[in-house]
């Protein structure tokens, strides 16, 4: 990455908290560029640093902008400015929220109350409703809007997928929202042939990846696996297969991977669990997926006849053992996104190892450390931001007994 890390943080912070929407646009573009080019560990560290910045003012700003209608009673007067800001904030948030630390910082414990969950549901409805309105306009031929599909459709979907991936509260809110209308009813339009044809090839592919990613998240999280099966995730997966090109290798652009492969991972993960398999039978998944059996097999590793396994499993017949590779790779799917890293800019420890947790800064709960030494080194720049977080916490009357000392940083385990 060019230039000094601290300077980059300051530059991004200035842009993303600016009163000028053009600055936020610049900040969002720079973030996305870094997301693609900086390397996962460096981008993760940057996202963590921005989340901790001045006690969290950047995230607050972006989320206030990105979820303009989080309170349905709130009236926004200047619609054009609000809409422009909305799109840019969503873009910045879309990149940042690939980091679990960022999502944790926002959807913290205070959201677990019934009121928090209700507001969280509004956020889901707001993001999904907004992007759907825009997608419908684009499909109806308002071609000038197609130029902004990145900001209007992709960015909110990216936020939604990342929030779901990293926040249990958000998944709970999705469950609530999908009680009235299923997940497929709410988002399936994005996978219809019409909109997929209208969008650029790249945007259509990104939508397929993000939708498959939502399905992976819901299926791989124990708290959402079963309700998701009852609330439209199977139709969503079938729709991803339906609009994916036959050759899945052509559908894998760069880092994103193939949507059909992700959907296969969902099925491979669910089938061995009897309660999930039971739901697949109840929703007649065999008939639903039969038209896509060729695509399913094409996206599976060559040694695996996925359809035969799927059919056998649901019909209660003896099935061939799944090659170990197919299972491992399906479980590796979730390793995408920005990993948790040590917050010290010169640390080379890499991502937090599976099964262990880096220590958190006890003051802000955001910064993470592989060692005491790196916490000490980071404290020189971090203390200002950490104290701001502490002040905020006191203001919000969220008294914490683990406040930071004036000079000596402390830490707690995750
Ligand atoms: Zn801190
Ligand atoms: Zn470290």
Automatic annotation (TrEMBL):
Keyword hit for Metal-binding: yes
Protein name per the record: MYND-type domain-containing protein
Keyword terms of this UniProt record: Metal-binding, Zinc, Zinc-finger
SUPFAM superfamilies in alphabetical order: HIT/MYND zinc finger-like
Molecular-function GO term, any one: zinc ion binding
Species for this entry: Klebsormidium nitens
Pfam families: zf-MYND
Residues spanning the membrane: none
Renumbered residue ranges of the record's region Disordered: 392-414
InterPro entries: Znf_MYND (IPR002893)
MYND-type domain: residues covered: 347-386
């Amino acid at each position: 990455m060019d230039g000094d890390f601290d300077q980059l943080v300051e530059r991004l912070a200035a842009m993303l908290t600016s009163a000028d929407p053009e600055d936020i646009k610049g900040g969002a573009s720079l973030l996305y560029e870094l997301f693609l080019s900086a390397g996962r560990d460096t981008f993760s560290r940057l996202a963590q640093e921005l989340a901790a910045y001045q006690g969290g003012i950047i995230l607050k700003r972006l989320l206030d902008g990105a979820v303009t209608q989080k309170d349905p009673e709130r009236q926004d007067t200047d619609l054009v400015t609000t809409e422009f800001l909305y799109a840019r904030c969503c873009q910045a948030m879309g990149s940042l929220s690939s980091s679990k630390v960022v999502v944790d910082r926002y959807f913290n414990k205070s959201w677990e109350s019934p009121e928090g969950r209700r507001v969280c549901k509004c956020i889901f409805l707001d993001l999904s409703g907004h992007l759907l309105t825009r997608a419908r306009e684009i499909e109806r031929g308002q071609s000038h809007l197609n130029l902004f599909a990145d900001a209007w459709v992709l960015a909110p979907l990216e936020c939604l997928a990342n929030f779901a991936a990293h926040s249990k509260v958000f998944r709970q809110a999705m469950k609530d929202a999908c009680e009235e209308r299923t997940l497929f009813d709410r988002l399936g339009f994005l996978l219809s042939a019409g909109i997929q044809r209208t969008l650029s090839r790249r945007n259509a592919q990104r939508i397929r990846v993000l939708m498959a990613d939502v399905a992976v998240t819901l299926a791989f999280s124990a708290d959402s696996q079963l309700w998701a099966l009852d609330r439209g995730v199977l139709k969503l997966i079938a729709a991803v297969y339906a609009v994916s090109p036959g050759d899945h290798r052509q559908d894998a652009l760069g880092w994103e991977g193939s949507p059909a492969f992700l959907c296969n991972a969902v099925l491979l993960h669910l089938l061995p669990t009897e309660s999930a398999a039971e739901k697949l039978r109840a929703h007649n998944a065999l008939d639903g997926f039969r038209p896509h059996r060729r695509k399913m097999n094409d996206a599976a590793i060559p040694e695996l006849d996925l359809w035969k396994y799927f059919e056998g499993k649901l019909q209660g017949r003896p099935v061939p053992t799944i090659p170990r590779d197919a299972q491992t790779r399906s479980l590796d799917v979730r390793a995408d996104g920005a990993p948790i890293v040590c917050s010290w800019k010169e640390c080379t420890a890499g991502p937090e190892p599976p099964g262990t947790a880096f220590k958190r800064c006890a003051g802000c709960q955001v910064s993470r450390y592989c060692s005491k030494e790196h916490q000490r080194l980071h404290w020189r720049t971090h203390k200002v931001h950490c104290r701001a977080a502490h002040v905020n916490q006191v203001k919000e009357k969220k008294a914490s007994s683990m406040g930071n000392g004036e000079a000596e940083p402390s830490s707690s385990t995750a």
